[in-house]
Amino acid sequence: MSNPVYGKTKKTSSKASAGLASPLPWTLSIGLILFLLWSSFQVALFNGQLLQFEGPIYWALMITTFLFIIWTLVYYKTITLDSQRDWLKLVVILLPITYMLSLINAASNYLAINMILIQCIYAMLFVMTMYLLQNKQINHVIQSSLIGLAYIIVGFGLLNWLGAFSFTGKLVGWFSSGVVNGVYNQAIWNDANGPRLASVFQYPNTYAAFLMAFLFISIFTLIRTKKVYMQLVHSFMLVPILLSLLLTLSRTGLVMMPIVFVVILLLLKPVKQILWFIYLAISGIGTIAILNPVNTAGLELQQQFSTGLAVKGWIYLIAVSIIVAIIIWAIQRWISPKLETKLQAWGKRKGASLLIPLGSMLLAIIVAVLLLGTSVRNILPDSISTRLENINFQQHSVLERITFYKDAAKVISDYPLIGAGGGAWTALYEKYQNNPYVSAQAHNFFMQKFVEVGLIGFIVLMIFILYIFYQFVRSYLRKTEDERDSHFVYFILSMTILILSLLDFNMSYVFIGMLVFIGFGGMAAAIEPRPVRRLKVGPSTARGIYTTIAGLTVILLLIVSVRFLQANQYAIAAKEVTQTSQSFEEIKAALDKDLAIRSTHSDSLLTLSALYQQGFEQTQDDLFYTAGVSLLEKALQAEPFNKSMVKQLIQLYELKDHNEQAYNLQKDYADNYIWDMDWYEILISRSFDLGYQALGQGVVAKKESYFSSGLEAYQHVVEGVEHLKTLPEGQLQGKPFELTSTMILNAGKMKYMSNDAAGAASILKGGIAEDLTDATNREIARWYLAALTKEGQQDQAIYDKLIAVAPNEADEIKQIAALNF
Question: pTM for this one?
Answer without folding.
Answer: 0.93
